[in-house]
Amino acid sequence: LKLVLADDYNQYVFSDINEDGYSSYPHKKIIIRKLDQNGNLIDTIIKDYANKTNGVLHNYLGSTEISKDKFVVFTEEIETKINRKEIFQHVFNKKDGNFTTTSVAKLFTEGGMKQGTTYVRFSENGKYAAIINDRSVSKKTANTVDNIVIDLSTLSKKWEKEITLDTDYMEAD
Q: Are 61 and 119 in contact (CB under 8 A)?
């Protein structure tokens, strides 16, 4: 739970349902609850971020306020049959009470259970989001990490780079 987009009259509470589910349609929802200044529930806005295709995995990656009126949620969608991983940003605008969803990146996957791990980190000043996709690779193979920086004021890519690490490189995290 996060208290977000608070002003003198209203406040919003963000939560997400990120239940595990891979072979059947999972429950993946973004929930925004609008509260009045006394904390009474006024409205509930629900965004289902999973498509209804079996065999597609969806994950919540992170969220943050991007202005006094907007809140962004990042999710990933992994489809192993076609070796596809896609990152989405869902922007909630409190002025109209709606979400806008756009694709941020389509990333490489090796297939099967080798999907790698994707992280979203936010800068301390709140201006940028970094999407880091640490690809899963076999032993004695150079590890590649996809790095994308999003400018949160424009919600556009600021920088993108693929970094290949030395084959001797080992990581704990």
A: yes
Rg (CA), the chain: 18
Question: Structure tokens of 8?
Answer: 């003198």
CB atoms within 10 A of CB 79: 16
User: Shortest CA distance to 76 belongs to which of 58, 90, 56?
Assistant: 58
**Model pLDDT for residues 59-80, shown as the tens digit of each residue:** 899 999 999 999 999 999 888 7
Neighbours of 143 (CB within 10 A): 18
Q: Please give the span between the terminal C-alpha atoms of the chain, in angstroms, as a whole number.
A: 26
- 78-132, pLDDT tens digit by residue? 887 777 889 999 999 999 999 999 999 998 777 666 778 899 999 999 999 999 9
Phi, psi at 109, each rounded to 5°: -135, 150
Whole-angstrom distance, CA of residue 131 vs CA of residue 66: 16
| pLDDT surpasses 80 at 28 | yes
- Strand spans (E) along 2-155: 2-4, 10-18, 28-36, 41-48, 56-65, 70-79, 84-93, 98-108, 117-122, 128-134, 144-151
The C-alpha atoms of residue 36 and residue 11 are separated, in whole angstroms, by: 6
Tell me whether residue 3 is exposed, middle or buried, using C-beta atoms within 10 angstroms of its C-beta: 0 to 12, 13 to 18, 19 or more: exposed
